[in-house]
Every structure is written in C-alpha cells, then in structure tokens.
Design a protein that fits this description.
2 copies of one chain form a homodimer.
Chain A: E1 15-21, H1 25-36, E2 41-45, H2 51-55, H3 58-75, E3 82-89, H4 91-115, E4 119-127, E5 132-137, E6 142-152, E7 156-158, E8 171-172, H5 174-177, E9 186-190, H6 194-205, E10 209-213, H7 225-237, E11 241-243, E12 246-247, E13 254-256, E14 259-266, E15 272-276, E16 278-281, E17 285-287, E18 320-322, H8 333-348, E19 361-364, E20 369-374, H9 377-382, E21 387-393, H10 398-403, E22 409-415, E23 421-428, H11 436-443, H12 448-453, H13 463-471
Parallel strand pairs in A: 1-2, 1-6, 2-4, 6-18, 8-16, 9-10, 9-16, 10-11
Antiparallel strand pairs in A: 4-5, 5-6, 7-17, 12-14, 13-14, 14-15, 19-20, 20-23, 21-22, 22-23
Helix pairs in contact in A: 1-8, 3-4, 3-6
Chain lengths: ~475, ~475
C-alpha cells in the first residue's frame, strides 16, 4: 500500500499514478478513492463530470418522478384530509427544478475534484496502449497523459432497434425526453426494463396516455417473475396499457405530423394499430468503446463492444482496467462506483474483495418501486439451488397503509440447506431506501433467520422485509 | 423444544401452556409466536387488542403526521412544479382517515388471533401467584386461567407532573389529543422526548403556534447530543418556539376560558409568561403494574413500578415473565414485540439469544425524522469506549435534494480498536425506513468498513448511511 498524502500536489507534469478516462459515477468515484489512497490521479472528461447518471439518467429522471408522484398524490389530496383545488402541473417548472438539482450536484462534484487534488483534464481522450491517454483538449491543443495504471470508464449511450432511427421528435430516446420542455399527450414505450417502466410511471402520473410494449413475457424481465407480475397488475390499475410478448416491425413504424403509428401483436398473432404522439425507444444502452483506442491494448472486447475483466476489473492488458457501463455487468451507477473503487484499491494494493454481483442492489423508481438483490427464484432453480421463500405483503404493513400506497410485497429467498439469504425482491413504497439492508446482510453472509431476527422499528416500511425473512421459516408475526 | 401443531385446538379448558396478560404489540406478538411454536396460548385483554401502539400511539399519530406533512408539502407545491390552489385541511377528515387505518389493522389482528388458534379472553385479568390469572370477563362472570408459564404485558399509561392534573381540555395528554376533533390554535408542549417532538412537528405543519419546553438542555435528550442540536435548529427554522432547560411550576399553571398560562424560564433566571389554548403534558409514561396482582408473585418491582427481569424477560418468580412498557427498557412497540418473542422462545425451549438493547432501533417521526441505534458519543465517552466517528450530511445526497428535504445527517460511531459499529444516529428524511440496516449490521457484529463497503443503490437516501460508515475511516466519496 502506498503512503497517504491527502493534498496531492498537482503540477504541469503529465505523469500520473492513475489516469481515468471518463468521469461518470464510476470514474469520479474511482478518482476520489484514488486520491484518498495517495495516488496522483488524472480524470479525463470530454463532456461534464457526472456522466449519464447525473446529467440525463438517474438524477434528472428521479427528480421528474418526484414531481409527478407528488402531483398524482395531490389529485387524491382529499383522501388525506387535505384540500388542494384545481390541481395541475407546470412541465417547464418541473424541468427547471430538475435542472437546478442537477446543477447543484454538478457543482458539488467540481468542488470535490478540487478538494481531492485531482487533475481534471477537459477533452476527448483516446488510449495509446494501456498506459497512455492522448487528450484533444477542449480549449484546443492536446496533452498526453502517462499513467502507471489506467482505468477506462467511458460509459454508455442509448441505443435503438435496427431500422428504427430516433429523430428526437416522434421517435425519441430517454436523452431526447430530458431535452423536451413538454410531455406528449400519448406515448408508446418500447421496452419494459428499468428505463421503460420509470418513464411509463412518470408519464402515467402526469396524465399521459401510456402504452408499454415488452418483447419478453414479463415487465422488468430480468427480475424475479413475481415482481414483473405485480408491477404489471399495478400498472394496469393505473391505466397504463401493457403488452408483453409484443411484436412489431421497427422498420415499419410510421411517422407523421399526427405522431407515430405501428402495428403490434403477439408472436404470430393478430396485430392492432397503435397511434401515439411519440414513441420512446427504451431497449437498453450500448457501451462507448468503439472510438477510444481499445484496439491499441490487449484488452478483450466482446461482440457487443463490452470489455472483459476479472472481478477486480482487470482487463487482459496489464495495469489497464475497465469499469462501469462498458463492462457486461449491471449498468448501474452504484455498481460502476463500486467497480471503480475495487479497481483503485487493487491498484493501490489495499487488498479489496473481488466483486460479487449477487451483493449488488438494483433499484427502479417506478410506482410501486422495485428494489432487488441477488438471485430470483427462477435463477435459483436454473442453478439447481434448493431454496425456501418468504413473502410479506405491504397491505399488512401499518406504515404502508398510513402512506396510502400498499401494493406489492417483500420476498426473501434463502438456501434450503443453511438458510443463507440469496435473493431479496421488493416491490412497493419507498423500497429503494431499504434494499441497502439486504446488501449488508448478504455481504455478511446472513441467514434469513438473522435478517428477520434483527429488530425493525415500528411502524416502518422496512418491517415488511424483516417479516418476509421470518416467513422463510413460517415465523412472520403480522400475516 | 415442544412439538409443533399449527392448528391448536381451543376448547373450554382453562389450562394453557401460556397465559399472556395484555394484548399490546408485545402481548400479541408473543401470542402469535407461541402458537407457531405449538403452545396452547390464552391472551387476556381488558380493552382492545393492539394496545397503546395501535389505538392511541404509534399508528394514529403517524397517520396524523402523514396528513400534516403532506399538507405542509402542498403549501410548497409550486417548488415541485405542481399547482394546488387554496390549500387547506379538514381536521375531521384527517381524524376519520386515521381511524379507518386503525380499524383496518385492528380487524387484521382479530383475524390473526383466529388464524393462530389463540384463546382470546376479553376481560380484566389479575394475577394470583405467578401461574394463575383471574379474569373478570367483559360479559360478566369470571374465568380462572392456569398457565404453565405466564407473561405480564399490561403496558403503560400517560403520566403527568405532580400538581398538573390533565383535564382533557386545557391541560391534555396525548390520549386526549387523539380524542379531539380539532387542533388548537396554539399549544405549549411540555417534554421534548419522542411524543413531544412528534406532536410539535405535527401541529407546526398544521399551522398551530407551538412552544416546546424541555427540562433538559437538549431536545430528544436521550439521543446523541448532535441529534438534539440538529433537531432544534430544524424546529426553529419551521417556526416552533423551543425552550430547553425550561423551568416552570406545574402547580401554578393557570387555566381559563382563554386557555392556559404559565411562567417559564431557565433555572434561577427570569421567567416569561406563555399563553396558549392548550398545554400538552408529554413527560413520559408510567407502567401499568399497580393493580394487576404483582404482589402475589415473587417478581421484583422497582420504586417507579417497573418489573425487573433478566435478558430473557424472566422475573424472580419462576415461569413468570414481564415484557413491554412495564419493564425499564425502551418503551417502544417493536422492542416489546422482541421481548415477547424472546420470552416465548425461552419458554418453548428454542434457545433464543438474550436481548441486547444496543441492537434495538429507535425511531421518532418528527420532521426531520430521527432514527438511531446503539450508543451515543456521550455514552461511549462515559463508558470509556474509544471511538471513531463518521458523518455525512443529507445536503450532499442526491435523493434528499430530489425530495426537497435535506436537513440532517447520518452519523456512524465505531470502536477505535476494531472498527465495530456501536452507534448509528440518523436525522433526516425517511430515516426510520433504513435504520433497520443498522440492526442487521450490529446483530452481525459488522465493522463500519463493512457497512460502508456494502453497496447502497443510487440515488437513495440510504447512501448517506453508507457514506457515513465510510467516513469513519476518512473514505466517504461524495463529501
């Protein structure tokens, strides 16, 4: 482990202990931890520090969702004994608030770069081998940075379906939606992963007519099947039209002044024509690895463009690491941050644990929220792991009744042999706020009995998680 | 361990494996676990199943707080880009909603009594020695129940100060406030423990002029000193008048048609006259142990009326247990439930762990919320435990900014020698929902480094807790 010098002197030298290319959540988290561990660190960014998460992803969408959910609640204010006449919303004001939050956090990151003594290099970086980054500087000219170690963290971009080119007006991406100053009257959303269901929820709360199409048989198809089913029920109740197993011809989507039209139906079945003002393509993101000089390194890149690493984020090129959305793991900001931190700790020699993706929580901020960790029942079955399952519904949770949102459940999956928790699946109110408990529990190899034996305060939503853990052994109290 | 028979036959016999006197959260939780473990169980209740928590405590107050906080947010709806004209509230409707929630949970408990095959005995029970309970039945007559083991769980009642008798109109208790169908115009609250600060927050949100008096130097005086300071700042910003070190003569409180008046000042200092429509006495609760026949047992009762037990809730009388608000531990519903469960598991011979009160979370639902576990810095100092402390402010947490409430902080206290977490102190938005993570962590003897290393999803409020844990070792990322 190298010595710790908190205020790293930054000079004009181009030699660094560590050069990080890309300053999204993964890149900047790696940089800050590197500085804490005494590494002279350069952080190269062609756009703004904070990346997708801060500028067009997690933060702005959650800010919009906050306003939309609040508006939806105001529509039912009388249920709470509260009067709010002539309820409405001002989309431009929602956007302005969102931008204010993004800017505040952006300024925060800029000050943390200074505080940590990071050399921030604004410009487009390109690898020249695994230890050198040539940066075309934003202000003109270039700078060649040499790193004892280099981390690639260039992130991802929205992608579409073959034949369905977004135009930013009729056929749009999530990036486009973050640029618009109004909501559509109606929208077809293609893809019911995290991005698709969050926008479906957001727009439904704002009164937009939403049709949600998913190719696979279930919403949030990577999650436990019961989660997808519960979400589908909840969405239907809210008036969202949901079509799973949906098939349509991306190249045949019609666009005109009136909006888009497409013929959608089940595989081999009859198709019906949908019309909407916009179509959102939410079919995932592609890694930004095509023009960063990866071919000058020995790193292995798969057919989809993802960089292959071990669980310390090392590529096949010595001293060259890859983290975040460019590696084929969960494309989530906190996972990128953790990957960056593990890479840096490995570089600094502090002997980190290798990453176990079964300990990484996932959160989706639709209404009801989805927050999960570890394996689904289906994955356990596929892996031949015998399990016991406990469930607890939020309608038996006092705080959920108090909040007026009590759809959903907590589900805990434990190994049948030793009771160890291998999956936690939550759908319901505010569940993203307490899935972190499952992270701690699985990191410490807790059994369901221990998780349920840990006392949860009353009356809180987290009691549902404790009860689900007890239910694994038939010992829930309040259901 | 006795054999498990899920459907316990209930007959006219008066012989039970277990008789539980009192059906608050502690009593009914013990009963349900006892049934799961195959014990023939009788549950005696003179009022309604659910006790203080369900009928006049946790649940109804939190329901009121939910409405009040929502109203306060509606007043600032424009901040979220939401329009809500002429905002107001209907106190009677808030009360009606509250009662609906209580009744729904009450029905739920009644059905769980049936499901678990518990013999529910409605009437006033009195001990005759440690194994017999004589019940004056609600419908007349009496029934004498014999238990192999007996648990006393008679709970607590509001108390007042000597010379200050509540009258239910001018000088009131929290019970009285749950009976009223309107809010006062102004209120003086005596006592800034959990009950006092929750009512202060509730009424302030409803526009009531609130003066909060605390005898000790700090609000929530049992909590870490920094929590009390932060809460005081937040309350003052919200327009609540806060007086700590407050002295007045309880016997000299004037009552008239205009309300109450009292002269209050610091110890030995000048007093000023306060006038308000009501005075709430929130100075704690007294155990209901004075007329339950404890004198017929060998159980030890302290001068204040609390029953002494070991950490399995055993009294000095063999086979006779005491749990909940009648034992001198945290008077919290979830602690009572845990005490009841440990007592029952001890009775059933399933070898439970003795209770460690440093693993019991505490939650107070004022705004900002307070949620804590384990020792304060002051308690560590008094106990001679050398500690390291990490803090993280919610204003550096993206989700808190999004929610528009970002006062407060997360604070983690770890032992200096081995890093084990000994205290977690949260004040801020929704913190009651994720203090459960600290329960799991301390149950599993986690270090701060492990708690911080557990990945928290982004963007969530729980990230603040993870960052505070990392800050213990100077390793927070976003501050």
């Amino acid at each position: 482990m190298r010595c710790y010098h908190p205020a790293v002197a930054v000079g004009s030298s181009n030699d660094f202990d560590l050069v990080i290319l890309g300053s999204g959540t993964g890149g900047y988290s790696a940089a800050f931890r590197a500085a804490q561990l005494g590494l002279r660190t350069a952080l190269v960014e062609r756009a703004k520090i904070g990346g997708t998460c801060l500028h067009v992803g997690c933060i702005p969408t959650k800010a919009m969702l906050e306003s939309a959910e609040f508006y939806a609640r105001v529509l039912h204010a009388a249920d709470f004994g509260v009067r709010a006449e002539n309820p409405g919303f001002d989309y431009a004001a929602i956007v302005k608030r969102r931008e204010g939050i993004v800017e505040r956090l952006h300024k925060g990151l800029q000050s943390l770069v200074k505080k940590n003594g990071i050399e921030y290099v604004a410009g487009r970086g390109r690898l020249e081998g695994g230890k050198k980054v040539r940066v075309a500087l934003g202000e003109g000219g270039e700078r060649i940075l040499q790193g004892t170690d280099v981390i690639l963290a260039t992130g991802s971009r929205v992608k579409s379906l073959p034949g369905l080119e977004p135009d930013g007006e009729r056929v749009v991406t999530s990036d486009d939606l973050m640029r618009l100053d109004r909501a559509a009257e109606s929208i077809v959303i293609v893809g019911a992963g995290a991005v698709g269901v969050e926008f479906a929820s957001l727009y439904a709360d704002l009164g937009v007519k939403v049709t949600l199409l998913e190719y696979l048989p279930s919403l949030v198809p990577l999650e436990d099947a019961e989660i997808g089913k519960e979400l589908e029920r909840a969405f239907r109740r809210r008036g969202i039209e949901v079509m799973t197993n949906a098939r349509f011809d991306p190249a045949a989507v019609g666009r005109g002044d009136g909006g888009v039209r497409l013929a959608v139906g089940p595989e081999g079945g009859e198709r019906k024509e949908l019309r909407a003002e916009m179509l959102l393509v939410a079919v995932g993101r592609a890694p930004v690895t095509d023009d960063v000089g990866l071919e000058t390194t020995r790193a292995k890149v798969d057919a989809r463009g993802f960089v292959e690493t071990d669980r310390f984020m090392r590529t096949a090129e010595p001293h060259f690491y890859a983290i975040g959305d460019i590696v084929p793991t969960f494309a989530l900001a906190h996972v990128a941050a953790h990957e960056g931190i593990v890479a840096v700790e490995r570089i600094a020699g502090t002997d980190p644990e290798p990453i176990d993706y079964d300990e990484m929580p996932r959160a989706t901020f639709c209404r009801p929220q989805v927050a999960t960790l570890g394996k689904s029942e289906q994955e356990c079955a596929a892996a031949g792991i015998a399990v016991k399952v406990g469930k607890f519904p939020f309608l038996a949770n006092g705080k959920a009744l108090i909040g007026g949102e009590y759809e959903g459940f907590a589900k805990v999956i434990a190994r049948a042999d030793d009771g160890r928790v291998v999956g936690v699946h939550l759908i319901g109110p505010h569940v993203s706020d307490f899935i972190g408990e499952a992270s701690v529990a699985t990191l410490l190899e807790a059994t369901a009995w221990e998780m349920g034996g840990a006392v949860h305060p009353h009356p809180t939503l987290s009691e549902a998680l404790g009860e689900a853990a007890l239910a694994v052994d038939g010992r829930a109290i309040n259901f």
